[in-house]
Amino acid sequence: MTQDSGPDGSSKKRVRLPADERRQQILDAALVEFSSVGFEGATVERISQHVGLTKAGLYAHFVSKDAILDALLVDTIFSPSNQNHWQWVDGATLEETIDQFLQTAYAAIAEPRSRAIFRLLITESGRSPERLRNWHEHILLPHALRRQEELDRCVAKGVIPNNAVSRKFSLASAPVVVALLTYLLLGEELAEQEVAEIRSAHREMLLLLFARGDL
């Protein structure tokens, strides 16, 4: 802790947060700033002011504004440490395995923070194709490969068949993207029923496709 002088000359304590808490605080402030004025309009100075840091103090946690944006994507949505979407459990049925995937995927897009980051990703990709290519190579593609490896392990265990959908994770998860866009376009209240119907149809689709055997 350090002590600062108040307006009356008295001293007040300033709490020094643990590094991980301060890092999350910076990310939260950055998401608000990016969502409000866009990535290009946001400044490290304003983000640091939101959390009571100097620019130098913020740079102790993130080397650049780009690094903050990358961390928002990785920490919230595309983290290697996130719970597996498809995780084969000994004795699990196809229905249980699919339900686990759906629970994980739809819970993720139901989070307002996740939707804010996806909205930011869509906006910034249109403004900066080069940044989109960088995200695709270093963040999105590795995430998709990890998810595909989960499906491949399920195929190897015999939980799901080896067919066109199990060989391409983006096909197995495509309705989740439709549900996400529904949230973004309609808002949570209006989208709730439609997303529930998409999820139900998604479940029926996967049960049908993964019960048919090899294609």
UniProtKB/TrEMBL annotation:
Keyword annotations from UniProtKB, A to Z: DNA-binding, Transcription, Transcription regulation
**Residue ranges of every copy of the HTH tetR-type domain listed in the record:** 20-80
Q: Which SUPFAM superfamilies match?
A: Homeodomain-like, Tetracyclin repressor-like, C-terminal domain
Q: Which InterPro entries does the protein's record reference? A: DNA-bd_HTH_TetR-type_CS, Homeodomain-like_sf, HTH-type_TetR-like_transc_reg, HTH_TetR, Tet_transcr_reg_TetR-rel_C_sf, TetR_C
Which Pfam families does the UniProt record give?
A: TetR_C_11, TetR_N
Q: Per the database entry, where does the chain bind DNA? A: 43-62
Q: What's the protein here called?
A: TetR/AcrR family transcriptional regulator
Please tell me the species this chain comes from.
Phytopseudomonas seleniipraecipitans
